[in-house]
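Morning F.,

Quick status update on the modeling queue. The single chain you submitted on Monday has been processed. Sequence for confirmation:
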Amino acid sequence: MEFQIERGALSEAVAWAARSLPSRSPVPVLGGLLVQARDERLRVSGFDYEASASIEVPAQISAAGEVLVPGRRLLDICKVLPDTAVACALEGTRFTVEGGGTRFGLSTLPLAEYPALPGIPPLLGTVEAAEFAAAVAQVVVAAGRDDSLPVLTGIQLRLDGASMTLAASDRYRYAVRTVPWTPKTAAGEAVELVVPGRRLTEISRSMAKGGEIRIGLSGSGGSGGGLVSFEGAGTRTTLRLLEGRLPRYEKLFALDDPAVAVTRREELADAVRRVAVVAEPNSPIRLDFSAGGTVLLQAGYEDDVASQQIAATLTGAQDLAVAFQPAYLLEALTSFDSPQVRLELLGPGQRVLLSGLADDTPRADHRHLLMSVRQLS
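Structure tokens below.
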């Protein structure tokens, strides 16, 4: 095995495939990257049984072959290589990397012990890469961080006709975003699957400039044995699905005769950042909306207090006060991209539905539900 490649292309390929490497594993070969050279293409792959990642890049192949090398060590080498052409070769049981007068030699891992990479599932359809990445970023803020409840750490994808709906919830908040979707075949029954949120965020961000993402599925949506794939621009990855379903959001989002407040989104986010400086951990920020056209934000306790008043409209009530955990409110606000935000309010300790405004019309394609704090400070 012998090939030549530009340092940038090698670094990109190794960094992409290394995304699937486990942080630590009792099985040493799972820490390896599979490097395959043939037909003027270099393919680098990683696999940890839960996720796989592969990428193909052009290379000058002098001798075809494949080798399994320690992944993180190869990644570290790529970061310090001179920015020049790189020559790589398998010399016995040693993999060499040489460029710009610098030479590295890596011991290899037993290729025969490496598990077979999963096949690519049948294609379901395609989604525009940049829009998909933006949608994932908008909903993942509401995903849980507690690994003892795996389904709540995921993002649920519902593929229904010409739309894809992404949703995430940690039981205290619920984010939903809908984007256009192009199914491969005529619309049939809707498909739902829950994908690990952290991994999907990394995948979508790295594929954001790739034009289209092709999504495939094998097994049953909702089954831990199912597999979902994402392909685009020479890269592909597979993820094992999480078991379970998120609770339905339609009834949660249907608020009965709420008061409605509207304010400038960035102005409200900046005010939250300022007054939260004096808030103790897990202490709420209070928002007092007035029909007079303002909202007063307050936080703090005893000697350390802060407040700021900004413009806001309120309809459906004369005055209404709610309180939120500042981090939750700020994450919700920054997930929107519209200049104004609309809040549907029921009162302290109840649900609050946020949506963006476009030309004074609420946008139904992105909504974020928060639970307000019952005890106002």
